[in-house]
Design a protein that fits this description.
The complex is a heterodimer of chains A (111) and B (111). Chain A has 111 residues and is mainly beta. Chain A contains no helices and 11 strands. Chain B has no helices and 11 strands. In chain B, strands 2, 4, 5, 6, 9, 10 and 11 form a 7-stranded mixed sheet that branches. Chain B has a 4-stranded antiparallel sheet with strand order 1-3-8-7, with no helix packed on it. The relative contact order of chain B is 0.34. Classes of the chains: A mainly beta (111), B mainly beta (111).
Chain lengths: 111, 111
């Protein structure tokens, strides 16, 4: 099936630093979504992207839908301890296909 | 709180047994999705229901089945359980296919 390659797998950063993670695919996607999952909880939707080139912010989070429609990135500025968790990218190839998820980026923030 | 509820939160059972996981979608959402998340893995799509009808199928084993009832709640039935079925099982709901909201999950442990 379709796969999303998410990198890095894990990151250790100092509080206050900016973070960048990305997701790539060999297929064109119509929608890109970014979720955050805290331990023992369900993923929470952070940002949804619907058009190539779209840049969307949610507080300290910014995500972009790549112009080739085969990638997306998520930036977190001025990280804080509660940013700790696993960040998943997900996407739809077409309107009727199920969401495909990346394997996640595990973020650790050192105070 | 996403508005999606799942019960039970935890389930411990033995190999060969059968269990039922329950999901209530957000008010107004007609679509329900089931996902499996194994340790350190991304979310694997199992199956989708829309207004009581099966809409899409992913990597769902034949030992697993699901249904969506007239009140839109859904149940995922797992039978002849194996050790490898131990995982987090998430339900998500949506009004549009693009943005799915996840429940807190059911942690299944097969001993």
């Amino acid at each position: 099936g379709q796969q999303l390659n998410q990198s890095p797998q894990s990151m250790f950063i100092q509080e206050g630093e900016d973070v960048s993670m990305n997701c790539t695919s060999s297929s064109i996607f119509n929608t890109w979504l970014w979720y955050k999952q805290d331990p023992g909880e369900g993923p929470v939707l952070l940002i949804a992207l619907y058009k190539a080139g779209e840049l969307t912010s949610n507080g300290r989070l910014t995500a972009q839908f790549g112009i080739t429609r085969k990638d997306s990135f998520l930036n977190i500025s001025a990280s804080i301890p509660s940013d700790v968790g696993i960040y998943f990218c997900a996407g739809h190839i077409s309107g009727n296909t199920p969401l495909v998820f990346g394997k996640g980026t595990r973020l650790s923030v050192i105070a | 709180d996403s508005g999606v509820t799942q019960t039970p939160k935890h389930l411990i059972t033995a190999t060969g047994q059968r269990v039922t996981l329950r999901c209530s979608p957000r008010s107004g959402d007609l679509s329900v999705y089931w996902y499996q998340q194994s340790l350190d893995q991304g979310l694997q799509f199992l199956i989708q229901y829309y207004n009581g009808e099966e809409r899409a199928k992913g990597n769902i084993l034949e030992r697993f089945s699901a249904q969506q009832f007239p009140d839109l709640h859904s149940e995922l039935n797992l039978s002849s359980l194996e050790l490898g079925d131990s995982a987090l099982y998430f339900c998500a709901s949506s009004t549009s296919i693009d943005t799915q909201y996840f429940g807190p999950g059911t942690r299944l442990t097969v001993l």
